[in-house]
Structures are given as structure tokens and as C-alpha cells.
UniProtKB/TrEMBL annotation:
GO biological process assignments: autophagosome maturation
This protein's name: PX domain-containing protein
SMART domains membership: PX
GO cellular component, one term: late endosome
Domain PX residues, every copy: 30-159
A GO molecular function held by the record: phosphatidylinositol binding
Leader sequence segment: none
Domain of life: Eukaryota
Listed Gene3D superfamilies: Phox-like domain (3.30.1520.10)
InterPro entries: PX_dom, PX_dom_sf
Amino acid sequence: MEEKDDSHLKCPEDSASICSNSSLDERDLSTWRVHIDHAEELRENIHSNLKYCVLILEVQRCELNNDNPLINNEEKPHWIVARRYQDFYLLEQKLTEFHGIFYDARLPARRSATTARNLDFLESIKADFEHFLQHLLSKPTLRNSELLYNFLTQPDDFALPTGEIILTKVFKVVPRRLRFEKGQSLEPFLISLLNYIEPAKAKATGCVRKLYNNSLFRNVGLDN
């Protein structure tokens, strides 16, 4: 597979997947800030002249309980990711499926693919898209959202995992979440998990159900 010409973009080291070992504080999206700086044209790969347009997102993670005025923005963890126009609508679609509609965090009506390839058009809508992301980050129900986390960190194209990738991530994420929650407030998480694996439902549902009988569930007090 040919590499894309996106070497100028930088991302956090642990941003590659849902099973990141980053701390819970780092994954608290309510402490993150996002700014859409500009629209840019990138090449499909370093050997091709084919180009596509993206919005460049500047993401910053603010430290919890740290109001030290001596720490400027440049010293706080920050990175850049590139997202295509259609990526935002995929994010909105999946978040709506999992969490319902956020009426104060909606994207404008979707335009044609031809329009979305125009840099001037992307510049004209970047404020609306930034507003959308900022409102998502302010939602308590999304503070640990894997979808939103991946959207703001994945160095590659934003896409939803399917099949075996989903199954692998399920078995890595669920035990970690159970240890953290200690058996409490798990219903919303499990509902979101089942929705997350919907593309691989036939294959994954049986595997997820097995987790209910796993000794780990009994150890955290889910069985009375």
C-alpha cells in the first residue's frame, strides 16, 4: 500500500486505536479543545498527483486541575489531524445511532461530493464544523466516546472498524472498563458497545454475550 503524503501532520503517540493504553485522564474528552485552522489540499500518496481536500484540526488536551498561568498553550499536549468533509457526517451519523440526536450539535445540510472538493467551500463551513465538535466535547455522555476519540486522534483516514478488528477491540476494551467502573453504571457502556459492533453483529453478538458469563464480571460484583 502506498503511503499518503501527510508527513506534516502530527498525532499523539497512543492515538492509533480503541485499545490505547492512555490514562483515563487523557481520555476524558471534556478536557480537550479543538480548533479548525484551515482547509488544505493533500496528495493521495507520495507517488501520485491525485489530490483531495481536508480540514486541518488542531487538538489540545488540557490537564485536569491545572490552572497554572505559567503554562502556555504550546506546552500543553497538542496535535494535528486531517479530516475529509464526509468524515464529519460519518461521525454525526454514528453518534446519533449510539446516543441520539444532539440538537445543539448538528452539521449543516450535506452538500455534493463535487462541492466538498472545493477549498473555498471548506473554508466557508469550517466555523460551523468547529462549533459542532466543540459542542460534542462538552457533552458528559461523550467524555469517554471511542468514536469521538478516534476522530480526533487517528492519523489515518477516519473509518469504522469491522469484523475481526471489532472483536479484538471488544476483548481489550471491556475488561479495562469493568475494572474502572467496578461493576457500576455499565448499562450505557454495554448498550453503546453492542451498537458499536452492529456491522459485525452476526459474528460478534455471541462473543459479547459470552462476556456476561466471564469470571471477570463476577469478580466486579455484577452477579449478586
